[in-house]
Write a structure and sequence with these properties.
Elements lengths: L2 H17 L9 H12 L4 E16 L7 H10 L3 E9 L4 E10 L5 E10 L2 E5 L16 E5 H7 L11 H17 L3 H4 E4 L12 E8 L2 H23 L2 H7 L3 H12 L3 H14 E13 L4 E14 L4 E14 L17 E2 L1 H11 L3
Parallel strand pairs: 6-12
Antiparallel strand pairs: 1-2, 1-11, 2-3, 3-4, 4-5, 5-6, 7-8, 8-9, 9-10, 10-11
Helix pairs in contact: 2-5, 5-7, 7-9, 7-10
Length: 361
């Protein structure tokens, strides 16, 4: 699949993990998820707090065992935490986020990066990083990037259509409906008692719905994704109203259609059987808490897997947990950073000049 379409597919799949929400009344789990996907797209503003933690990481690969750089990397990543606090509004489009990266071990460090986005520009605050020193005259400044210029530099054409929020919401709704409709309720969805969901303080949920995949359903889940969901996604993206939104050409669409229809089923099923030999899913759950106003108040994702290759004696254990909490949904937002003032902004050319003088470039 071409890179552009693959990136869109990945974005859509990631979107599923953060926008599944609630419904007007407590319904069957799958119906709640399906109806909620549409309702989540009505969020025109919100505050958000997200956290992603690597709770366990064990790597046993004989070829690199004892390598100090690998050992150091594993130590830093284990219990590493990424946080993302943000504020969003659709009209006029403005988003600001603070990303925190906290690494552990002997090389423990914390990095915070502020970002602001409008419908035309992206601002990134140059952080102070001990291991990657930036010139003093750029640290604390906001590096501004024009989205039209970025598109042109990458050989693309910037289109205002790509910023059409209403059309984007409609597109994602169709994708989510196509995705959720293919998975059987009894195998992949269930209700979780609100009292047993370990919700954080301040989350007032009326229903918690879980989407889950186990070892027993892994092959089927992947089969559904490739053979049923992917063709639907391509057909939706091929609609005239979405092509310009996605920046796709007819050649992109034709190539994607050819690829999803050319999947060799024997090879694909053999690959699924091979995965089962090495991969063990201990846990893969996505819990979504639905508040009394039918919006997603909170969501957490738990993934715990083991990979074991008996032929090479390579073993990897990974356990991660992520969560996102939404507040002040559709309320008036109070931005903390705002649009950076000219005195606090530097261009890419100015940034590169400072780096060159420092000898980095």
């Amino acid at each position: 699949m071409n890179k552009k379409f693959a990136a869109i597919m990945l974005t859509l799949l990631l979107t599923v993990t953060v926008v599944l929400s609630g419904c007007a009344k407590k319904e069957e789990p799958k119906a709640a998820m399906t109806n909620a996907a549409t309702n989540a797209m009505k969020m025109t503003s919100y505050e958000m707090k997200s956290k992603f933690v690597i709770e366990d990481l064990q790597v046993n690969i004989p070829a690199v065992e004892g390598d100090p750089s690998v050992t150091q990397a594993m130590t830093m990543l284990k219990n590493a935490e990424v946080t993302l606090d943000g504020i969003y509004q659709a009209e006029p489009m403005q988003t600001e986020m603070n990303m925190g990266i906290n690494l552990k071990g002997d090389m423990a460090m914390s990095i915070n990066i502020d970002m602001v986005m409008t419908n035309e520009k992206i601002y990134v605050k140059v952080p102070s990083i001990p291991m990657l020193p930036f010139p003093e005259d750029v640290v604390g400044k906001y590096l501004v990037m024009d989205m039209k210029e970025l598109a042109e530099q990458s050989g693309e054409t910037f289109s205002p259509e790509s910023l059409d929020t209403e059309k984007s919401q409609k597109f994602v709704n169709e994708i989510l409906e196509a995705l959720l409709s293919e998975y059987d309720q009894a195998k992949y969805f269930k209700d979780i008692n609100v009292k047993d969901a370990a919700l954080p303080e301040g989350v007032d949920a009326k229903q918690v719905v879980q989407f889950f995949v186990t070892n027993d359903t892994l092959n089927e889940a992947l089969d559904i994704l490739v053979n049923k969901v992917a063709p639907k996604v391509v057909d939706i993206a091929a609609k005239d109203e979405y092509r310009e939104l996605l920046g796709l050409t007819q050649e992109d669409i034709d190539a994607a259609k050819a690829e999803v229809s050319a999947v060799n089923q024997d090879e694909f099923k053999a690959g699924l059987d091979e995965i089962q030999k090495y991969l063990k899913i201990n846990t893969f759950n996505i819990n979504t808490a639905i508040d009394k106003k039918d919006f997603p108040a909170y969501q957490d994702v738990v993934l715990n897997v083991d990979f074991n290759d008996p032929e090479t004696n390579e073993n990897v254990k990974l356990a991660v947990k992520g969560s996102t909490q939404y507040n002040n949904i559709n309320g008036k937002q109070e931005f903390k950073i705002g649009i950076p003032k000219d005195a606090d902004v530097i261009t890419m050319e100015q940034f590169e000049e400072s780096m060159s003088q420092m000898g980095t470039y």
